[in-house]
UniProtKB/TrEMBL annotation:
Domain spans labelled 6-phosphogluconate dehydrogenase NADP-binding: 7-168
Function: Catalyzes the NADPH-dependent reduction of glyoxylate to glycolate as well as succinic semialdehyde (SSA) to gamma-hydroxybutyrate in vitro. May function in redox homeostasis and play a role in oxidative stress tolerance by detoxifying glyoxylate and SSA generated in glycolate metabolism and GABA metabolism, respectively.
Reactions that this protein is recorded to catalyse: glycolate + NADP(+) = glyoxylate + NADPH + H(+); 4-hydroxybutanoate + NADP(+) = succinate semialdehyde + NADPH + H(+)
Alphabetized UniProt keyword annotations: NAD, NADP, Oxidoreductase, Stress response
Active site: K177
Residue ranges that the Swiss-Prot or TrEMBL entry lists as coiled coil: none
A GO term from the CC aspect: cytoplasm
Protein name as annotated: Uncharacterized protein
PROSITE patterns with a match to the protein in the record: 3_HYDROXYISOBUT_DH (PS00895)
Length: 293
């Protein structure tokens, strides 16, 4: 990819997409980086840094060799592809489409089949790592689908992430990402309950954090998010509405496979409660507020 100086596109400039597209732009590996966002005004910052802008997903795809997407949820991913002036209107033989959004397997498969039927190539590439890893180019990328396209994207993945995994046929990366985020949501739910119980029982939350941090449960997420919970301030890195979407999709996967997931189901209820409290656009740490009702 790097040698040929391809033209690449990027759809979706939210918390993650803007940082990822910026890293592609800054790398200098590509002849051009063309961006699109549903709210077009959000393209302006990257345009001022050297990106091109297109007014529709179709216009991005038709002017690029490979287009990446980082969109909110299945509805957004499908709208960008199947909507008026969507990706399908710009796809032609050999073009690559790489959807890095966190979606379920059925959504990814539907997109992959449509792109392939139009002569294009498809990879799903959801990521672990949040706002800061996206800015730092330190994401963990889970890839599946067209192996040749995955390999062609390796220089781009190396710019956006610290490690990428090829997991097999389309659907495998979508499933892996949902499993990973199901574990994360359950961990965050349990952590917030522990913080709430510590507080209510007269213990210092800072002491709980330190004790957890010294033992076998030490992990970067508790260390990083604990102080925000203590301050009850939740500027979004990973919006709570997206964590709840991931739990919902993971539970649907469990239902389809008859896999009991009682812990994740309980965590999902806490995230639903926090969302109903109006915390959906805050960081997923705001699930702590569900413990304070
Ligand atoms: N934030 C994080 O830490 C991580 C997020 N993810 C996943 O990455 C994806 C993006 O997350 P993030 O950047 O945080 O989300 P944001 O909410 O910040 O951005 C969402 C993006 O999707 C666009 N969008 C929403 N609905 C539609 C629609 N119907 N049609 C077209 N575009 C739409 C938004 O456009 P507009 O600006 O117009 O609203 C925006 O560009 C999600 O799938 C999320 O689960 C994965 C790893 C980490
Ligand atoms: O999907 C979001 C994941 C956030 C993270 O991995 O820290």
């Amino acid at each position: 990819m790097a040698d040929a100086k391809l033209n690449v596109g990027f759809l979706g400039l939210g918390i993650m997409g803007e940082a990822m597209a910026r890293n592609l732009l800054k790398s200098g590996l590509f002849a051009s980086v063309t961006v699109w966002n549903r709210t077009l005004a959000k393209c302006q910052t990257l345009v001022s840094e050297g990106a091109k802008m297109a007014e529709t997903p179709a216009a991005v795809v038709s002017s690029c060799d490979i287009t990446f997407a980082m969109l909110a949820d299945p509805e957004a991913a499908l709208a960008a592809v199947f909507g008026d002036n969507g990706v399908l209107k710009g796809i032609s033989a050999g073009k690559g489409y790489v959807d890095m959004s966190t979606v379920d397997e059925a959504t990814s498969t539907r997109i992959g089949e449509a792109v392939t039927a139009a002569g294009g190539r498809f990879v799903e590439g959801p990521v672990s790592g949040s706002k800061k890893p996206a800015i730092d180019g330190q994401l963990i990328i889970m890839g599946a689908g067209d192996k040749e396209l995955y390999e062609q994207c390796q220089p781009a993945f190396d710019v956006m992430g610290k490690k990428s995994f090829y997991l097999g046929a389309t659907g495998a990366a979508a499933r892996m990402k949902l499993v990973v985020n199901m574990v994360m949501g359950a961990m965050m739910g349990a952590f917030c309950e522990g913080m709430a119980l510590a507080d209510k029982s007269g213990l210092e939350q800072s002491a709980l954090l330190e004790i957890l941090g010294l033992g076998a449960m030490a992990n970067p997420m508790f260390a990083m998010k604990g102080p925000a919970i203590m301050a009850r301030a939740y500027p979004p890195a990973f919006p709570l509405k997206h964590q709840q979407k991931d739990l919902r999709l993971a539970l649907a996967l469990g239902d389809a496979l008859n896999q009991p997931l009682p812990v994740a189901a309980a965590a999902n209820e806490s995230f639903k409660t926090a969302k109903a409290l109006g915390r959906g656009d805050e960081d997923f740490t705001a699930v702590y507020e569900a413990t304070q009702k």
